[in-house]
Amino acid sequence: MSKREEIIAYWLVPTAEHTARFQNVVDALADQQGAPLFHPHLSFGSFTDTEPDLDEVLQLLSGLELSPTEVAQSPSFTMSLFVRFKPTEQILRARAALETRPGFRTSRAFDPHISLCYGAPKNRRELQAEINALLERPVQFDRLIATNITLPVESHADVELWTQRAVHQIPNTN
């Protein structure tokens, strides 16, 4: 068995309108798998055991909008089927600021994406029109959610153990 590690993961979450678009696909794919539901999110960074000062990072994220570039699959459980986004200067600056906070940890290169399911999808073709529609317009983000996660995440049972710790509203400059 792999060594277990507790972390605090910070997720960028789309606005309510954009979350609903993704949530419909996430829920349908989870239902096909008999898997737990999860909140659509973009994994932004994680920390070992501290909650960092996020004021500067939240300011840098204000008005964040990302353009989807593709739907992709991989053999990795946590990146089985996902929508990848074009990294912008804004998100890269905010991520760089997050990385300077004490306790920041990373296990892979930053690849902005929102997972649609964990584990291979059972019948992607059944939802292909809805999945393709996720690529049609940019996605806006308005929250950063801190979530308690135990690594490694290798099964749906691991996903079921995720617990929300805090919600940080991204300031709106519009």
Please supply descriptive tags for the structure shown above.
174 residues, 3-stranded antiparallel beta sheet, 27% helix
Describe the overall structure.
With 174 residues, this protein is an alpha+beta fold. It is built from 5 helices and 9 strands; from the N terminus they run βαβαβββαββαβαβ. Strands 1, 2, 3, 6, 8 and 9 form a 6-stranded antiparallel sheet that branches. Strands 4-5-7 form a 3-stranded antiparallel sheet. Helix 2 runs antiparallel to helix 3.
What's a concise summary of this model?
This protein has helices at 16-33, 55-61, 89-99, 128-133, 156-160; strands at 5-14, 42-47, 65-66, 68-73, 81-85, 104-105, 113-117, 139-151, 163-169.
How would you summarize the topology of this molecule?
Blueprint: E1 5-14, H1 16-33, E2 42-47, H2 55-61, E3 65-66, E4 68-73, E5 81-85, H3 89-99, E6 104-105, E7 113-117, H4 128-133, E8 139-151, H5 156-160, E9 163-169
Helix pairs in contact: 2-3
Provide the β-strand percentage band.
25-35%
**Strand segment count:** 9
Radius of gyration: 16 Å
Question: Quick one: overall form?
Answer: globular
Give the helix/strand class. Answer: alpha+beta
Our measurement of the CA-to-CA distance between the termini, rounded to an integer number of angstroms, reads: 49 Å
Number of helices: 5
Classify the helix fraction into a percent range.
25-40%
What letter string, H or E per element, gives the SSE order?
EHEHEEEHEEHEHE
Overall pLDDT, averaged?
A: 92
Major β-sheet, in short? 6 strands, antiparallel
Flag low-confidence runs: none
